Amino acid sequence: MRGRLLKLAGWLRRRAENIAAALLAVVFVSFILQIVFRYVLGWPVGWTLEVSTLAWMWLVLWGAAFVVRERDEIRFDILFSTVSPRLRRGFVVIAGVVLAGVFAISLPAVVDYVTFMRVESVSYIDLRLDYAFSIYILFALAVIGRCLYRIGAALQGKSPETADLALHREE
Amino acid sequence: MSPFSVCLMAIVALAILGLPVGYAMIAGSIVYLLVAGQDLSIAAEQLLQGLRGSFVLLAIPLFIMSAELMNVGSLSNRLLHFCNAIVGRFRGGLGHVNVVQSVIFAGMSGSAIADAAGVGRLIISLMTREGRYTRSYAAAITAASAVVGPIIPPSIPMVLFALVSDASIGYLFLGGAVPGLLMAAALMALNSAMARLRGFPVEEAVPLRAVPRITFRAFPALMMPVILLGGIYGGITTPTEAAAVAAAYAFLISLVLYRDVTFAQAYEAVLTSARSSASIGILIGGALVFNYVVTIENIPADLSAFLADYELSAVSFLLMVNVILLILGCLLEGITILLVIVPIFIPMAQVLGIDMVHFGVVVVVNLMIGLITPPYGLLLFVVGSVAEAPLLAIIRDVLPFLAALLCALAIITFVPDVVLWLPRLLGYNG
Q: Do A39 and B275 touch (CB under 8 A)?
């Protein structure tokens, strides 16, 4: 059962990585198109820039939610890496509770904001902003989920390094 | 206690507890909104609109991607052969090769870490083969020369400085050129002296008649900085567009011209870039949210007023900034400082009439030096793991280089013309 779950998690993660790579490819390709349209064809278009900035915004939030591994994160770890494993697990629990807490408390207001943005749309490609911004809700849910997972692992006595879903793939 | 001090304390506490800095800033800012009784969705709004609205930020994933693509193919290798043919013949030759390739490679990648982990790996293995150089010296000079990378255009830290200061990226890039070359020259002089002192071997010189062939093999790689900088300063492309062109060019020569990169390797390079873009992106997002709090609280104006009371001169202000940043650089990672601490100094610098391009170059040089300052120099860890050398030995060997770079920093700080000469020559009115 557990093995199957891990397999599924690994599969999902690889698909999430496919999407992140694809989003970066979209940033890149639409940018190149913009240059081609503007300098080669002398025919400036607006949608390319919108697509690349939206893809970049999605890349950051999608990537942060599902693709960035604990060891890729930029953190201030002088103290964190020197304390005893027991204390470190305590750190994980406290920080996780605060982070999950503030994201959970602000979630209703965020949902309101995102749904309200349906009144606006991205001008050239005619995409409603609530769709574009819904990625933040997904991101917030993922942050809460990851925190709970890490808290659970820490309470069971696992060190933060192995409490990373991403690592199961390499093992 | 004011909402702002609660916010600051939350951020510091969460970061110390090991949360990634970006998340600590987002969480601290939401705490601020809670305490100040503001709409809790403001954090999401600032992050989303900020990421979507800052066109210059797009240069970051694109520069990261072009560096990754160059690292997987034989491009770096060809470049290395070229540098070796030119400067490898002198005493301490591979040390010189190390610095020169950093200067050329710097014209492409814009990231010191990519520089050290990519080409750095090749040159460290070359230097330590048959025990010609000690592992720690090879690691130390690789780290020191990687520092020069983001000073010479293009440069991801300069893009971030442009974001927080509204200075022109094009002129910032230009401003880094002379200081970067100055620092490279200082490193090479030091390497020469060390080679004599420690008796490093002289490599067998590459025969001159082989040089044209080696140059030809490296030619597409050597054209990269030309295309990139030519595009920007020929007024053809914006710096952000140039980043996309650089990535396209790296893609083209690796996959089509040299055909030494498989599809799987290319995918892996894109994925790695996507991953680092996202982890930098969320840090930028956190800074955008925190920046809202700082602006609402009118912090820069307060600090400027505080400064005015002390009647600080421009020179003593720059000196103070340098000392603060160097100390912070020992503890914090460069991008964090750039996005969180530096914005506080910018209004003060403006009040004191310090040129923004000059200030930007001083700040970036300072932060890059922070990458090799013990104990928290990120580059020291990177080269340490590549060279498999103990950290303490690397630190001992890096100290002379550090001293040389600090001298260069002092010159750049107190002689603004070193920075501003080239931008002014090309039309900057500052």
A: no
B267-279: pLDDT as tens digits: 998 998 899 889 8
Which ranges of B118-210 would DSSP assign to H, the alpha helix? 119-128, 135-148, 156-165, 169-198
The distance from CA B64 to its chain's CA centroid, rounded to whole angstroms, is: 11
What letter represents residue B60's amino acid? Answer: I
Handedness of CA B355, B357, B361, B366 (dihedral sign): positive
Least confident of A69-83, B199-213, B346-360: A69-83
Which of A20, A49, A113 minimises the CB distance to B41?
A: A113
Across the interface, of A21, A74, A78, the residue whose CB is closest to B21 is A74
- Interacting residues of B309 by C-beta distance below 8 A, sequence separation 6+: none
> What pLDDT score was predicted for residue A171?
31
pTM: 0.83
A43 touches B at CB < 8 Å: no
Please name the residue of chain A whose CA is at the shortest distance from the CA of residue B62.
A28
CB-based contact A64:B282 (threshold 8 Å): yes
| Helix, strand, coil percent content, chain B, rounded in steps of 5 | 80, 0, 20
Calculate how close chain B gets to A45, using CA atoms only, in Å: 15
pLDDT tens profile A94-116? 999 999 999 999 999 999 999 99
Contact B225, B133 (CB under 8 A): no
B303's tokens: 């600090």
Q: B68, B237, B271, B331: best mutation site toward chain A, by most A Cβ within 10 Å?
A: B271
ipTM score for this prediction: 0.90
Residues B248-259 have a mean pLDDT of 82
Tokens of B424: 């002014």
Choose the closest CB to B61 out of A17, A56, A132. Answer: A56
Alpha helices in chain A (DSSP H): 2-35, 47-62, 85-116, 129-155, 167-170
* Residues 72 through 131 of chain A touching chain B, CB cutoff 8 Å: 72-80, 88, 91-92, 94-95, 98-99, 102-103, 105-106, 109-110, 112-114
Instruction: Tell me the domain boundaries of chain B.
Output: 39-425
